């Protein structure tokens, strides 16, 4: 199938499919006319790539894990290197979440401290949610 058909069948834009190819995640054949030609199993591969991306994995990590993937979920065949990669990525996500939670708390502290310093007559006028700065 050509790239347009793979795009229609997977709901993934052609430019993303070309990116997956550049990252070594998809390997189409080339027709005599130079067009990319994908085997039917490319639909499954793209589905697996999308699911692994949803898990927060990078394309480098996916390139490492993809040969271990089976099915649309995908299911990953267990091996120590695979689990190490997944656990490392999970720790990175947990660290990022912790940083965001701390940043959120500090920002809330700034808001609370600033609101306490506002004169009483202006507190009722303050917007409940931050408003974007006006365009210049």
Automatic annotation (TrEMBL):
UniProt entry keywords in alphabetical sequence: DNA-binding
GO molecular function: DNA binding; DNA-binding transcription factor activity
InterPro entries reported for this sequence: DNA-bd_dom_put_sf (IPR009061), MerR-type_HTH_dom (IPR000551), MerR_fam (IPR047057)
Domain spans labelled HTH merR-type: 1-68
Any one Pfam family match given in the protein's UniProt record, by short name: MerR_1
PROSITE patterns for this protein: HTH_MERR_1, HTH_MERR_2
Alphabetized PANTHER family for the sequence: HTH MERR-TYPE DOMAIN-CONTAINING PROTEIN, REDOX-CYCLING DRUG-SENSING TRANSCRIPTIONAL ACTIVATOR SOXR
Name of the protein this chain belongs to: MerR family transcriptional regulator
Organism: Actinomadura soli
